[in-house]
Amino acid sequence: MIYDLINIFLSKKRSSVAIFDIFSHFNICLLIVAFVIIDFIHLQADMNEIYKKPTQKTFAYLICDVITPSLLFLSFVFLKNGFYFFGIVAFGLVPCTLYFYKRENIKSQKYFRNFRNFSIAMGLVLCGITFIDMDKIYLRGLIQMFIIICLFVYWRYIFYLYPDDPRKEDKITAKAMLDTELLEEN
Asked: Is residue 11 part of a domain?
């Protein structure tokens, strides 16, 4: 994805103003990369510290660990190539996957339920707009706003809300899973 961003940035086809055009594909792709980076930081810094052994993670966690980056990658590819409908659907499913991932954490459920509901509603609106004969620059602007809002909501959770109660609850869950695993071994 970084390689594609460099190609978009250095492309000879672009005009000198395209990089600074807030509705360009470059900015949309850059926002998706930022989402990937925040998710990676969360998984590496928070979750790997809590779930030290892969066996502590449930099958649902493993599936979400695979589906989330896959959806982000697909949304990147689709939106970069102008397949807006599929890009919106792929990106709109990311909060749904995160909700499924965080459903066991009581402290996170309400936050991610609202995030999921917003994502579904906004995704449906944007998918409907893709069928309207609208100037693509406005559509890209709406998509960019959708990604910015989702990025802000996820960033707020990871850096402000998660370090408090949700992190403690994840640690309790991980400890209970480890204790159960130790009992099963004996």
From this structure: no
Spatial distance between the Cα atoms of 27 and 14, rounded to a whole number of angstroms: 14
pLDDT higher at 80 or 15: 80
Tokens 């409907």 label which residue?
A: 128
The rounded percent of the chain whose pLDDT value lies above 90 is: 19
Across 90-96, average pLDDT:
92
91 close to 71: Cβ distance less than 8 angstroms: yes
Confidence category of residue 46, pLDDT binned at 50, 70, 90:
low
Please tell me what DSSP assigns to residue 12. Answer: T
Asked, for residue 41, whether it belongs to a domain, the answer is no
Q: Give the ranges where the chain is alpha helix by DSSP (H).
A: 2-10, 25-41, 48-50, 59-80, 84-102, 106-130, 136-156, 165-185
**Contact (CB, 8 A) for 153 and 139:** no
- Cα separation, 95 vs 87, in Å, equals 14
Virtual CA dihedral for 102, 103, 106, 109, nearest 10 degrees?
80
How many domains in the chain? 1
Q: Could you tell me if 95 and 119 are in contact, meaning their C-beta atoms sit under 8 angstroms apart? A: yes
